[in-house]
Amino acid sequence: MELSGVEAKLLVVDSEPDQLAAMVSLLRSAGYEVLEAVNGNGALDQVRENHPDLIILDMILPDKSGLEVSKEIKSVKELQDTLVILVSNVEISPGNRAKWLEGGVDGCLTRPISKGELLAIVESMLRLKESESKYKSIFENTGTATIIVDEDRTISLANSEFEQLSGYTKEEIERKKKWIEFVSEEELDKLMEYHDLRRNNPDLAPRNYEIRFKDKNNNLKDIFITVGMISFTEKSVVSLLDITERKKIEKALSLELKINSDLAILSSKLLESTPIQDISDLVLEYAQSFTRSEFGFVGYIDPKTGFLISPTMTRNIWTECHVKDKSVIFEKFGGLWGWVLTNKQPILTNQPNDDPRSTGTPTGHIPIETFLAVPAIVDDDLVGIISLANSKEYYKHDLEVVKRLSDLYAIAISRKHSDDSIRNNEEKYRSIVGKFLKLHNEILMEISNR
User: Fold this and answer.
1) CA pair distance 274, 259, nearest whole angstrom
2) Which of 39, 277, 371, 417 has the fewest C-beta atoms lying within 10 Å of its C-beta?
3) Residues 341-379: tens digit of each pLDDT
4) Which alpha helices (H) appear in 292-395, and where do they start and end?
């Protein structure tokens, strides 16, 4: 007899000695290693101890049915890949066959069985298992999260990378979850349309696209998807690449480019001797935009009085704030922004009400939910402040950006003070010259009258 090309360990379970002996002899002559059992419990012992690749299991056994034995084997995770062929002495109805296969049985045979039929079925099932094992090994080691999706959108197979991506175990995913459970609601209709279109006309559905993926903890991740249909089936294979970090980097680079561009604009305004009012407006606009702040103000210190003058206080903060006798000139410095000016140090806090540096807010003041402020300093001299509030959350990067803005704002303020000083000196000079000329003319008049 020609030997099988597949090396495998088999278990034959039959309570009839002659049937058992004949089947064992046939399979051994084909080159298989064959184990034996005469009842259900004996079969279970052999399976646990020896882990056969395939079991030929008689339906009628002395202690329990072959179907019960099969269910017990398939209920153990480590044994679920064991192939089970159920053998019946009576014809199996289509209904029973379907029920047994759904229950985990891999094949059904009805006696009498020819030697050629038995060997052909055993070898084909073992080769199929070998192919599936290789396929699963490749599937498991793709390096990216991968799933197999059935026509009804159920995930039939998931690899370990998908477990890590989703936060669920394979037991929680396979044949229990549909892929649409991992998709953000705003993209659901579009992706369901792709799913159906792919099965009707694959060329019309995109193979690659980006989605927002929702994991077990409802965290949203940016995912690049590749989808393809498995030939001659209604199943699709889906590869998911987590690009969340890449998107964050792209967003950060884009923001940095915008920041640099806006700072360049601000710098050019300084070279053009733009009025401090316009510079202040621009600084506040950029600061709020960069930090996503709802409110804010910028101001400069009057070198003569030491008071804070805030030319931007007339913006939206003015209409929202209902503090009595409010002004754009602050003689006293209070609250968190006052601490920044007094100590010449920045503050970033996302819990300002619990901050020990806070003295609270006056009646009618805008509720402060988050706070960020940076002093504008030149040669250790305090010249102004940028103060922001009520971003959803402030980050260290926000503080660094506002520091860069405050450096430019400090230069603008210094230039204003310098221009004011020059202007005042010019006025003084003109006044002195005027007085001198007046006195000179008076002296000339007096001399001429003598």
Assistant:
1) 20
2) 277
3) 999 999 999 999 888 888 766 656 678 899 999 999 988
4) 316-320, 335-343
The answer to whether 280 and 298 have CB atoms below 8 angstroms apart is yes
| DSSP H/E element including 158 | strand 155-158
**Size of the chain, expressed as the number of residues it contains:** 450
Q: What digits encode the pLDDT tens for the residues 204-254? A: 899 999 999 999 999 999 999 999 887 777 888 899 999 988 888 777 777
- Would strands 236-242 and 145-149 be described as parallel, antiparallel, or unpaired? antiparallel
Burial class (CB in 10 A: 0-12, 13-18, 19+), 87: buried
Q: Residue 84 in contact with residue 73, Cβ under 8 Å?
A: yes
- Joined together, the tokens standing for residue 343 give 């100590």
Task: Please answer whether residues 298 and 319 qualify as being in contact, where contact means their C-beta atoms are separated by less than 8 angstroms.
Answer: no
* Structural contact between residues 10 and 56, judged by C-beta atoms closer than 8 angstroms: yes
Element (H, E) at 431: helix 396-449
How many of the other CB atoms lie within 10 Å of CB of 428? Answer: 10
Q: Identify whether the C-beta of residue 340 lies closer than 8 Å to the C-beta of residue 373.
A: yes
Please give the backbone phi and psi of residue 48, each rounded to the nearest 5 degrees, phi first: -65, -35
User: Residue 153 CB: number of other CB atoms within 10 A?
Assistant: 16
Whole-number Å distance between alpha carbons of 127 and 152: 29
As a dihedral over the C-alpha atoms of residue 172, residue 173, residue 175, residue 181, rounded to 10 degrees, the angle is: 120
Specify which residues 13 forms β-bridges with.
37, 57
Of 285, 236, 245, whose CA–CA distance to 265 is shortest?
285
Q: Which helix (H) or strand (E) holds 224?
A: strand 220-229
Side-chain half-sphere of 130: how many Cα atoms within 13 Å?
11
Percentages of the chain per state (helix, strand, coil), in multiples of 5: 50, 20, 30
Residue with the two structure tokens 């037991």: 171
Per the DSSP assignment, residues forming a β-bridge with 371 are 349, 389
Give the Cα separation of 367 and 101 in Å (integer). 66
DSSP letters spanning 261-330: HHHHHHHHHHHTT--HHHHHHHHHHHHHHHHT-SEEEEEEE-TTT--EE-TTTTSHHHHH---TT--SEE
pLDDT of residue 324: 45
Which tokens in the block code for residue 160? 């370990």
What would you measure as the largest C-alpha separation in the chain, in angstroms?
Answer: 161
In the chain, the amino acid numbered 290 is F
pTM score of the predicted model: 0.49
From CA 135, how far away is CA 132, in angstroms rounded? 5
Phi-psi domain of 175 (left: phi exceeds 0; alpha: psi -120 through 50; beta: other): left
Among residues 128, 83, 145, which one has the least CA distance to residue 109?
83
CA–CA distance, 62 with 44 (Å, rounded to integer): 14
